[in-house]
Amino acid sequence: MKKLFLGAVVAFAVIALAACRIQQNLPGPDRVVEWIEIDQDIEFDRTTPVTINYWHRMGGINEAQFRQWVDEFTAMFPNISVNMHHTGGGYDDLRRAIQLELGVPDNDANMPDLMESYNDHILTYIPSGRPVALNNLITAPNISGLFHETTAQGIDRAREAWLDIMPSFRAEGQLDNSAQEGQDGHNADFEITGTVMALPLFKSTELLIFNRLLAEEQGWTIPTTWEGWNELSPAIREQNSPTAPNNPVFPIGYDSPGNWFITGMMQTGAPYIADRWLRDDNGDIVYNEEGNPVAIVDEERVVFNNEQAWNMTNFFRNMVKNNFMTTRDLSGVQFLSAVFVQGSLFASIGSTAGLRNSVTNVAVNNRVIAGLAPIPYFEGGRRTQIQQGPNVSMFYNNDQHRLIASWLFMQFITSTRINAEFVTAYNHPNQGTGAPGNIPSRFSVVESQTFGLWAEETVRYPNVPTSEIPAAQMLTWTLSQRENRIAFDAIMMASRPGMDFYVTPAFAFSSNMRDEAAPLINYIVRLAGTDAEAMPHIRARFQVAHNNVLGL
């Protein structure tokens, strides 16, 4: 066995690869796939050429930036070639292309090694036996944490690299967990109980964007709860749109009706997806005679049709009925940013990835300066919001050298520096046009050199809270300066301790449930009448959605 060094960037990490050092096993009864077995002293052969296939749906500037990272990686590992395979279209097109590839026999050479993924997609790939559980790669001391900026070595470096990923993103990649799906199955002994099928790649969330200029002029405090928005909305309705003087300003809108519904479920605690395991009256998992946990059937996990959910959607129906709230569907626009920048909408909830669209050109409209806040929650409920964006997953291709090369590249593209460059657009082919509004998946991003340089070079007054900068003063800033400022605020807000992002488990019907969310709430918020008059229609429409999910 020949031992070779990885080069200056990881000069102290020695990893090698020998025959039969990795084994892909069949899944056990309580795991979605079995974990591959890896010898802890495994090393990497830096002389034998190897090509890995990275499947994606990126285009334009994002693909150009990714290719820069590929060039950096292959310069560090000259014997590794990365073949970027662009499928075109969106994530569903990528999923369908991979499913077609899985149906081609004896196709290891063209099969993806790494791919952009969502949990629902991974579930469809599992019957092929290709998806790799990352657990024993993550905890292998010689091949993990290689790109993590730390003085630690070995298992301590691997542990730091894993724990640096924000808990909700660690949880999202774990498709089963002995305690609770959608939670981070990790303990102090660096044992990961959930089967890790993905690492976070490009992430975003939803935040509330509001017109700071109007809020400061009127002396309004931004409500933190939905009930508070009901109280403030009449005062907002007394203001007229600067671009349509005869039209009152709409108080608040939600871009994605599907996210609106699911987030409302998570905030109120309304049952949405039942736990995977059968539990007794004490909440403990029930085990069969063989000592394996007893899973409930997938159909019984679909539990969103319940009274709490009916009442939550009726609450929003009343906000819409009172002209306190709107959606992009109700407004007839593709995104509510088009209404917000005209000053006709005071606040909008949407993806951080689209923040730039809500930053106005003051030469066109000098009555809107965007500010940022967490989304409202229900009084007494959970203050949580969705996490969005693709992960990266791995396939097993019967080539151990290729698997380790894939793991190296997977770590590189999810490392602190790459994540920092992505969320700031620093070293980006289109640098200077404003950061994209994505959020970090690692705690270390905001402490990184890349983030510090970006903030120093492009963000005005980075050490001064935005709340202390008068909105009227920002009218004198350039468009790029205001875009970078709101991206900075989004990154800092999403990275602060206590920010709660929810994860919904992936299972056979989870994709169907999401498909039904938008038409369900869109129907309900259009219902007229009193609560008593609307409720029978709400219950009936929930039953239709439930039947549609199950294909009944």
* Reported CATH architecture of the largest domain: 3-Layer(aba) Sandwich
C-alpha-based Rg, rounded: 25 Å
Task: Quote the average pLDDT.
Answer: 87
CATH topology of the largest domain, which one? Answer: D-Maltodextrin-Binding Protein, domain 2
Characterize the largest beta sheet: strand count, sense, and whether it forms a barrel: 7 strands, mixed
Output the number of helix runs.
Answer: 18
Number of strands: 14
Q: Which overall shape is indicated by the principal axes computed on the Cα atoms?
A: globular
Name the CATH superfamily assignment of the largest domain.
Answer: Periplasmic binding protein-like II
